[in-house]
Amino acid sequence: MSRLLCPSMMCADCGILKQEVLELEKAGIDVFHIDIMDGNFIPTFGMGLQDVEAICSISEKAVDVHLMTENPVRHIKNFIDMGVDIIYIHPEVDELPVRTLQLIKTYGGKAGLVLSPQVTVESMVPLLSLADYVLVMTVSPGFAGQKYLEFVNTKIKQLVLLASQYHYKVIIDGACSLSKIKELSKLNVDGFVLGTSVLFNKAQSYKEIVETLRKI
């Protein structure tokens, strides 16, 4: 499987964060995925800045941050300075998303858009030429343990088709179980955010799970 495998570090054991990062790297993951929440756009809190800084300093792999925050432009330079490679924003809570996406690129990062379940693909088309990645949420953002929203599959198919025109990668985030990864791989998506549905808190080692996913 050549898809990008992106462990959601919110699901890792933060008490042994360094060990988790090193074991995931040895297992062969591709990108560390970090959720940042401000308690406003999403009424919960994700990982902290110190966690981002630690993962960037420990890891030799790429790191992304998913900014579930209002007015995300305020935080772009801080995350790039920490060593973050990819920054995802929610355009529905950004007054000037074009400016924000351009700023990410200006500072040397890769720009990512997030498609929430309630947002239409059509509303995002004007921004797609600025995106390096599109993160498709198959659950409501900000809460773990949700069920996969089947109606989002139509949007995934739309975005995969548009990717050939706008040249971004499609990443799926939310309830990515082994069976869902098998199913969605057939739609030619580019990668998956891996949480408790397939990677964390399992009897198998990270290496064993990643090897199983690579065989799909």
Describe the structure.
The protein is α/β, with parallel strands linked by helices and 216 residues long. It has one domain (4-214): Aldolase class I (TIM Barrel, Alpha-Beta Barrel), CATH 3.20.20.70. 34% of the residues lie in helices and 19% in strands. It has eight helices and eight strands, in the order E-H-E-H-E-H-E-H-E-H-E-H-E-H-E-H. An eight-stranded parallel beta sheet has the order 1-8-7-6-5-4-3-2. Strand 3, helix 3 (76-82) and strand 4 form a beta-alpha-beta unit. The N and C termini lie close together (5 Å). The model has no long low-confidence stretch (mean pLDDT 95).
- General shape: globular
Number of helices: 8
Structural class: alpha/beta
What is the overall pLDDT average? 95
The figure for the number of domains is 1
Largest sheet: 8 strands, parallel
- Name of the CATH class: Alpha Beta
Radius of gyration: 16 Å
Second CATH tier, the architecture: Alpha-Beta Barrel
By CATH, the superfamily comes out as: Aldolase class I
In order across it, which strands form the biggest sheet?
1-8-7-6-5-4-3-2
Q: In terms of per-residue confidence, which ranges show pLDDT below 50 for 5 or more consecutive residues?
A: none
Q: SSE order in H/E notation?
A: EHEHEHEHEHEHEHEH
How far apart are the termini? 5 Å
Q: Classify the beta-strand content into a percent band.
A: 15-25%
Would you count the extended β strands for me? Answer: 8
Helix content: 25-40%
